[in-house]
Each structure stands twice: as structure tokens, then as C-alpha cells.
Amino acid sequence: MGLATRTTFRDALAAALADEMDADPSVFVFGLDVSDHKRIFGSTAGLVERFGDRRCFITPLSEESMTGVAIGAAVSGLRPVHVHIRADFMLLAMNQIGNMLSSLRYMSGGQLRLPLVIRAVIGRGWGQSAQHSKSLHGLFSHFPGLKVVLPTTPQDAYSLLRAAIRDDNPVIFLEHRWLYDVEGEVDRSRRLPLGEATVRRFGKDLTVIATSWMTVEAMKAAEVMAKRGVELEVVDVRSVVPLDEATLVDSVKRTRRCIVADYDWTFCGFAAEAAALISHRCFEILERAVERLGFAQVPCPTTRPLENLFYPNAVSILRTAEHMLKLEPADLSGESFYSHEQRFKGPF
Amino acid sequence: MLQKASPPTLREAPAAREASVKHAEALALYRKLLLVRRAEEKIREEYPTNDMKTPVHLGIGGEAIAVGVCHAAPPGARAFGTYRNHAWYLAMTGETDRFFGELYGKAIGAAKGKAGSMHLAAPQHGLIATSAVVATTIPLAVGAALAHQYRDEPTLVVSFFGDGAVEEGAFWESLNFACLKRLRILFVCEDNDLAIHIPTSQRQGFRSIPDVVRGFRCHVMSGAGYDLRTVMTSAHTLLERMETDPRPGFLHLTYFRFLEHVGPLEDFHAGYRQKPSPDELARLDPVRRFEQALREDGVTDHELEALRLSVDEQLTRSVRAAQQAPFASPAELSTDVWA
To answer: Which domains does chain B have, with CATH numbers?
Structure first.
């Protein structure tokens, strides 16, 4: 084990990129804004100075073709990291992602390798609205051939990004904007494989399977519930593809109750997938039907009061847990819930 | 230009030796051209049995483009193309066992039956990928050219596509980026004036493809894609310009699509285009044109016939082998998704 240092999520991302670029000359980072003065909220800071503009460069506004360029470079032996400042912009590249990236290896009978990473930031708050707030991991996970990773902690941001770059398959790496300021211990010698979920908090009464920012909300819900002696177990999925089914199923087998708290729409999304998995594998021991929490089935609204209704949060998790455990709703008036907008002042 | 070689002797003069090389080269080119044509004619013969369960987009009329450009390209060049890909595959590999194996969906196929006709590729021979969604491989070719520039390699990348691809945003995005980065890439637009059944006049709001592309910082040439020697001369000239002034090249080559968009038949009866006169068809036929040129240069009918026999033997053998070969095992369903 190496020395752990206190690092923000954004710095952990930049460190992972720098360490991989340092270790392997075939790794390069490109995309809109990667080398401008803002550096994708600091997550590509220092790269152009250290590695030059051949290995860290901006592109024209051509999301589809730049994705194709990444694929062409990958099949030619490089390891591109293509960056989008919002996941929503990846919809411009869906032709390349859905028709080429996911299928080329299969269509070549295994002759082509596609070692590339697409990083994208999930926006939220300060009026990000319908076109700057999607996470889309359910959509990407629908296509066989793509790995889909959502780190929550700085350590995971660091270790999983390095693993994604080392992987010989396409990896879509989705980073929630609010996690960028989160600080945590990061041990740069720590390797993590893709495809392992982790139990963030153990509890015997109910499992919350969470993705991305919903892990933060689930941890807060667990903290509040613990005050009345109810123990939530929080499982951070970390990687939707490959999915660590065993960790999810094992947890629910212990708690016999499950909420899937996904950072996406629930309809046809990962929450539906996870609910089906748990219902199927834990059918005999489930006390209650699996509950799903996710975005309201509407486009994300701009104004804060409506946006608050759009997103699931710690309160919706604990109210659902109370309902499943047949508990009276707790008085939450004394609780202080995380409001990121106290720290996140925008504009972007 | 091409001379009929006299039998080589020990006292052969240098000029005669050169002519002999040209003669051999011309015959090799003819064999390649014929291999493409006869392979597709073989498909037309066999397709009605319904054993070749893959949509075939035949390129009869356009063979000289693949054969000529691949011949002009330096060794080690890498190519990306479209679903009308048989000519590139055959020109770059010369082999027909895995080719027909793939069309019949058999385990011996180039991709074990997972590609079929529309996604044929031979990465080990330089044909990296082809695709059935218009314009999708153009940015891949640009990405490959970027990789070679990144590693300071002189490798040429060729991106083949049709006139319809020019209407896709990905084409302009890719051309823009390639010109911006001055990549070593040759764009080859195979213009048959048709996107499925719709002529260019009903699809394009600009006067001509080469004229629009000339607005970009690249070298542009245009020519008759049905004439093998024109294709080779144009490609050579363009590659020389790309050498002296490193920028992408854009080669616009016209040709006549003899058959329907997809499938083994003619479709002149459908009424969306006129059937040319027999003379006009002969003028637009790259194989007949090249045969004529070879005869004018002194190649004998006997030599041409010998090549035809050799090509047909190869094709008959490959088709039979493909028909008899087993399909992929059920386990193959789940392989090749992940590296």
C-alpha cells in the first residue's frame, strides 16, 4: 500500500490521467475544452503543460466524428480518452457509440480491439435543465460491448479511471459534477478492477443499491435512519457494465428488502434492471417488492423548486424505507439535508 | 504504354526488361480486376439458392476504383470502407476462401459469419473496417491517420465512401478535422450518382462535390472511376502532391452502378434511371475497358483467357468449400464481445 493523501475528486481524475499518460505513451486526452483555461472543471489540469498538445488537445465541435476518430485511433493501437463536459452531448455521438463502438469487435470476429475511454460529466443544479443534466448510463448499458462506470469517491475516480484506460474494451466513464468537490483519501498505488460494486455502509434492515450521486444521498438517509435504530446497507454499484450481481444479491439476501436508487429515469433504466435481478434472485426471501427511485419521468426542469421534485434524494429514500419497514414517518424537522447549491453557485 | 514482352533472354536490354515488368504488372492488375468482377458474378449465380443469407451490395461497374487505388497506395496502407466492400476486400487480400465463407455465414469466414457481406474486413491485410451505416467509417479512417501522425509513421490511410456519404455531417466533420491536422489520408469518393435510387440532383444543394471540397485545405482531383489507368494515374498524382505538400487528398471518381442498390439483379425496369445503350455500357465497363487497353498494348487473347480460367478455378473452389463448411458453433454467439 502506498501513502494516501487527501484529494478532491477532480484532482484524482487529473492525477489518474497524468499517471496513465506517464506510464503509456499511447494514452492521449482530447475533446472540447480539455486544454482551455478551465480544463473540464480542473479534471484535465496540468496535462497539456506536461505532455504537450499532441497528447492533450482540443477539437472542433464534432462529437460524432471525434468519437469515430477515437475509435480509429484505438483500432490503430492508441488509447484515447475522449472528454465531454456534459453527458448530454454524447447523444450527438450515438451513431458512433451504438453502431460502431459497441459492435466493431464482434463484427470483426474478434480481430479488432477498442481500448478507449469516453469521459463525461453529469450536470446538476443552477438551472442545468433538460440538456445539461442527463447521465444516460442506462442507455449506454443497453448496448452489448460497452463498459459503463460511475465513480463516487476520489479513490474510485482515480483507480477506476486508470483501470478504464488500461482496459482493452470501450469504457464510458460518467462523473457527477457535484462529486468534483468531494474530498477523500486517495492511494495512488491502489488498483481496482472494473465490475466490482462495494458496500459503503453495512446494515441489516434494508439494502439501498445506489449509483453515482445517489450513493451520497443514500449514505445521508442511512445516517438519519440509524438515529432510530434502523440500519440501511448502502451498495455503490460503481460499474453498471460489468455488473457485480453477486455483491448486490448477497446484500439483499442479508437484508431481505431493497430500494434501487438510480441517478437516471427509472422507466426502462438501470433501476428496472436491478429490480428485476433482485426480484429474480431473491424472490423467496424478499419481505417486500423491490422499490425504485429515480428521476421523475419528465425532462429535467430548470427552476429550483421543480428541479427539487425531479430528483430523488435522501428524504425520498428514507420515506420509502419507512414505508417498506412499516414505520411511522420520522419527524425530519431537525435534520439538515445536503443541499449542494449551498456550495455550488454555478453558472456551470 | 504496356508492351507485349518478348520471351526473356540473357541478353535482354534494360528497356525490354522494364516492359516485361510492366507487362507482368498489367496482367496482375487484370487478374485482380477480374477476380472482383467474377466473384460478384459468382454471387449473382449462387444468390438465388438462398444459401448466402446476407444483403449483397454489388459493385459491378466500380471495380477499377478499388483495384486502382489499392495498387497505387504504398505498401502498408490501411483502408476503411462501406457496405459495398467486396472489391476492396478482394483487391487487398486476393483470397476468396474466407470471403465466400463469410458470405455463406460459415465458421471459415473472415469473421466467422458475424460480419456477412456488409461488414467484411481483413485487418491483417489493411482493410480495417467497413460499415453498413453511411459515412460511419470516415471518422475512423481519420482517427487511424491521427494515430499514424501521433507515432510519426508515414502510413497512408485511405477512406472509401460514396456520394451519399457527402450528405452526412460526419463527412464534413471528418474532412474538417483531417485538414486542420494535415493528416496523411486519402479520401476516395466513389460517385455513382445514386443514393439507393435517388440521383445526386435530388439530394445535393451544391454544384459539385469536388468544388465544395476545394474550399478545404486539401488536394483535390476528379476523374473517371471506370477507367483503371485513369484511377491509378490520378491516385499517383494526388499521392505525389500529398508528399510534397502534406495535406489530405480528395479523389472524386465517377462510375456507373450496373446493378440494383442491394441484390444480384439489374433494375432498369424500375424506371428511376435509363438503361444505357450497349455501346455506352461497354464504355462504362471497367473490365472491358482494361481488356481493350491490354489488347492494344499487345496482350494476347490467350493470356487473358488463361487468367480467366485461373480466376474461375479459384472461385469455384472457394464457393464449394464455403458451401460445404460448417457454421460457427453455438458457443460463438457469445465470443468476441469483449477483448
So the answer is: 18-328 (3.40.50.970)
